[in-house]
């Protein structure tokens, strides 16, 4: 299917030879059109095979100003003074990523992953934070740091002949982070100078035929498996609540509206072509307890889109938040008006979800605790399976049978919100309880969607990488031609863009003033518009899955279903080798530490002095934190929505019964280190955990200990959220002692 006509090969070969280029390989025809049909010397290799794995890397935040053994205090930011900042980074602090860590990370990828993954999902924030008043960020820096990372990818994934210049052996799919632009968070409508600039920086990654769309708004997609699987790169900055340059997704004139339209059309086309899609972006659609990171109008549409295209969406992957976790979105939270294709900005603002996740527009490190507790509380309300009771009467029995048979219909009613079906369910002798599977949208939990958030490379906790495995059954022998995405000329489509002067990024103050003016002007206009009749904006409702279509890959295991992921981390405490003796925490009260916007990190008591005359780090490596395939704590048998709903429910149920002294027992017993030797833990599978919920409270003390101790789903979830950096005692104190109450939310910029 990827072979070109022989005659064409010949002609091109002759041309090649004439040009003095050796050419043994077939010309590259590229399903995604990024190819130019040019001949490449591929050393006899004509393509690549799939491995069923991809890499998710996020929030690298390279910082060329980082100094080893500088101070992690806020006013030093690892740029000055003496202190504990290690050679590969200051783990658990607010400092950014030293280039040594960036280099070692890519070296490790090169040595351990480069030849066993199919593509890379790179979810942004590839420049340092604006975290040092003495070294303010400049536009030039933001650009150079992004270019530096592209160069790093080229060193690892570039083809032999063209290292660093454009040809990549596998697709790399980038996206905008809120720190990849200036001023941070503010992304105005396109085309603008950032979409133009990144079109250049990412010229090897954005397929030719997507370049126009990319200029419009920084969104695009890549067929990572030509004609079969696409990765859609969303520009989540248009949805981001903190982007004061735009205003949600309801108004037809907003880029967020346009983005959603584009997304709907792409998904529709992909469906018609029989393809599947992975969605990716920087800022995740977090939404709990009156706080959210996206504008509610965007969340509404995105969630509706996810529902309607659940037959083709494989999953959604995000970064930005640094904590390792996932989200579950309930299609029942889609408003009626949204389902009818109508939305006004005011309409949605009047919901409960006014508060932003972020103080000052940014999530905070301290608020991570509050956020996790909010998630848990939300998950505590997930439907719980009924007891595995036997039907007590023939009528019950028959009802069960009938319901069993009509699962698909009731599912349709939950999912499509069909009035008739809903009514039918209620009518059934008035008070009959719905079956668990009905409550969750059928056997495949099609009432929900899931978003996965990978933790970061920047060592806010420990540096991390994530490798996801997905199902490629039947494609093992497929050979995908190398992507011959020889970079298009640096500034093509001249008619589409104003020339970049080259000096456009020189004057930061002027630019910031201009952005401010543009925002003001827009605000004024919006206020004027609002004084007129409040507008309702209509939009086209995406069509639902075709009748009779089987559940999509996020729901029913099949080709492209995400099967598992492996979470890697680099233990910088060990590798930096400066403070290896277990820290005896002369614990400042947690509030003293967390109340600040800045984190000085776990070695904060060593400010003011060099830990050693000279660093002597251990060999750098990433190690497996956990692999969901054989993980006995999360027990995710795959990454389908149903599996995550089960896990979330377990985590939520842990909240309902707190056994404080049990957790303490465990800690005394050695922090639950021998997790694999845990014979006492109840084996749970799909049906097992159904029973478990019910048995709760009847368990003997010994079992309780495990349920609420260091092996509970909740404890594990928290420990992993912070990439294993948090002391189990602290987890217990902060998360397991009935602290449902608010945790102070202070700001530190992400
Ligand atoms: C990191 O790698 C780049 C080349 O990609 C090199 O120029 C730089 O010196 C390296 N920096 C460190 C700190 O290793
Ligand atoms: C992978 O996909 C195949 C084909 O659809 C399916 O039969 C199989 O169960 C899937 N395997 C897993 C582990 O999901
Ligand atoms: C990291 O290394 C330190 C020092 O060797 C060790 O005490 C700690 O337990 C390690 N942390 C993890 C999560 O492995
Ligand atoms: C995760 O574990 C499974 C089962 O042991 C293994 O097949 C897989 O290769 C592991 N994944 C990674 C990325 O190491």
UniProtKB/TrEMBL annotation:
MF terms (GO), sorted A to Z: endopolyphosphatase activity; exopolyphosphatase activity; phosphoric diester hydrolase activity
Species this chain originates from: Amniculicola lignicola CBS 123094
Annotated keywords: Glycoprotein, Hydrolase, Membrane, Signal, Signal-anchor, Transmembrane, Transmembrane helix, Vacuole
Biased composition (Basic residues): 599-619, 696-710
Protein name: Endopolyphosphatase
Compositionally biased spans, kind Acidic residues: 662-692
Biased composition (Pro residues): 542-552
Enzyme Commission (EC) number: 3.6.1.10
InterPro entries assigned to the protein according to its UniProt record, in alphabetical order: ASMase/PPN1_MPP, Calcineurin-like_PHP, EndopolyPtase_N1, Metallo-depent_PP-like
Any single GO CC term annotated in Swiss-Prot or TrEMBL for this entry: vacuolar membrane
Region described as Disordered: spans on this chain: 489-508, 523-552, 596-621, 655-710
Superkingdom, natural source: Eukaryota
Subcellular location: Vacuole membrane
Entry membrane topology: Single-pass type II membrane protein
Broad class of where this protein is predominantly found: membrane
Domain Calcineurin-like phosphoesterase span(s) in chain numbering: 53-310
Family: Belongs to the endopolyphosphatase PPN1 family.
SUPFAM superfamilies, A to Z: Metallo-dependent phosphatases
GO biological process: polyphosphate catabolic process
Pfam families associated with the record: Metallophos (PF00149)
Signal peptide start and end residues: 1-23
């Amino acid at each position: 299917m990827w072979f070109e006509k022989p005659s064409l090969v010949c002609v091109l070969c002759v041309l090649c030879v004439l040009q003095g280029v050796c050419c043994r390989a077939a010309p590259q025809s590229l399903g995604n059109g990024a190819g130019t049909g040019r001949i490449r010397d591929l050393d006899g290799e004509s393509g690549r095979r799939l491995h069923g794995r991809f890499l998710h890397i996020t929030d690298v935040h390279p910082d060329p100003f980082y100094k080893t053994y500088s101070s992690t205090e806020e006013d030093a930011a690892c740029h000055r003074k003496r202190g504990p900042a290690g050679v590969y980074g200051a783990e658990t602090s607010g400092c950014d990523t030293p280039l040594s860590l960036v280099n070692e990370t890519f070296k490790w990828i090169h040595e351990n992953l480069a030849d066993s993954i199919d593509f890379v999902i790179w979810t942004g924030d590839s420049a340092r934070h604006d975290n040092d008043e003495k070294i303010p960020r400049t536009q030039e820096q933001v650009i150079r740091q992004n270019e530096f990372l592209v160069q790093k990818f080229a060193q690892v994934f570039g083809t032999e002949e063209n290292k660093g210049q454009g040809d990549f052996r596998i697709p790399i799919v980038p996206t905008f982070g809120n720190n990849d632009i200036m001023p941070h968070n503010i992304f105005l409508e396109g085309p603008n100078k950032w979409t133009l600039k990144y079109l250049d920086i990412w010229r090897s990654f954005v397929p030719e035929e997507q370049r126009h769309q990319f200029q419009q708004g920084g969104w695009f997609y890549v067929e990572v498996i030509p004609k079969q699987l696409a990765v859609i790169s969303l520009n989540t900055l248009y949805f981001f609540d903190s982007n004061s340059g735009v205003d949600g997704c309801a108004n037809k004139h907003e880029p967020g509206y346009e983005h959603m339209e584009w997304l709907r059309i792409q998904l529709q086309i992909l469906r018609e072509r029989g393809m599947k899609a992975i969605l990716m972006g920087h800022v995740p659609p977090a939404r709990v307890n009156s706080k959210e990171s996206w504008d509610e109008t965007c969340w509404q549409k995105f969630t509706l889109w996810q529902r309607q295209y659940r037959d083709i969406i494989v999953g959604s992957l995000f970064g930005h938040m640094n904590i390792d976790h996932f989200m579950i979105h309930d299609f029942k939270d889609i408003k009626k008006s949204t389902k009818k294709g109508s939305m006004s900005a005011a309409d949605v603002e009047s919901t409960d979800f006014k508060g932003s996740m972020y103080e000052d527009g940014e999530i905070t490190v301290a608020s991570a605790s509050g956020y996790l507790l909010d998630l848990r509380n939300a998950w505590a309300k997930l439907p719980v399976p009924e007891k595995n009771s036997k039907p007590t009467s023939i009528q019950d029995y028959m009802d069960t049978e009938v319901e069993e048979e009509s699962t698909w219909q009731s599912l349709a009613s939950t999912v499509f919100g069909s009035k008739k079906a809903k009514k039918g369910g209620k009518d059934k002798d008035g008070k009959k309880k719905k079956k668990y599977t009905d409550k969750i949208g059928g056997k495949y939990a099609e009432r929900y969607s899931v978003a996965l958030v990978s933790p970061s490379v920047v060592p806010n906790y420990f540096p991390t990488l994530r490798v996801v495995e997905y199902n490629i059954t039947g494609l093992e022998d497929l050979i995908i031609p190398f992507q011959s995405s020889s970079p298009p000329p640096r500034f093509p489509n001249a008619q589409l863009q104003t020339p970049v002067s080259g000096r456009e990024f020189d004057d930061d103050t002027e630019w910031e003033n201009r952005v401010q003016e543009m925002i003001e002007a827009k605000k004024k206009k919006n206020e004027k518009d609002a004084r007129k009749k409040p507008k309702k904006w209509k939009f086209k409702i995406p069509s639902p899955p075709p009748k009779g279509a089987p559940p999509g890959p996020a729901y029913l295991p099949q080709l492209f279903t995400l099967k598992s992921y492996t979470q890697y981390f680099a233990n910088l405490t060990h590798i930096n080798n400066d403070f290896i003796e277990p820290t005896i925490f002369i614990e400042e009260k947690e509030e003293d530490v967390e109340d600040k916007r800045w984190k000085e990190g776990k070695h904060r008591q060593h400010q003011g002095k060099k830990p050693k005359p000279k660093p002597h780090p251990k060999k750098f490596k990433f190690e497996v934190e956990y692999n969901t395939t054989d993980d006995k704590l999360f027990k995710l048998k795959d990454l389908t929505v149903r599996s995550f709903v089960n896990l979330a429910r377990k985590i939520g149920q842990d909240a309902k019964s707190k056994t404080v002294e049990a957790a303490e027992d465990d800690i005394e017993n050695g922090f639950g280190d021998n997790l694999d030797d845990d014979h006492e833990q109840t084996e749970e599978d799909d049906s097992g955990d159904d029973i478990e919920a019910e048995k709760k409270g009847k368990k003997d003390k010994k079992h309780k200990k495990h349920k609420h101790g260091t092996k509970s789903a909740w404890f594990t979830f928290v420990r992993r959220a912070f990439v294993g950096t948090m002391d189990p005692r602290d987890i217990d104190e902060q998360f397991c002692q009935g602290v449902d109450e608010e945790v102070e939310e202070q700001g530190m910029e992400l």
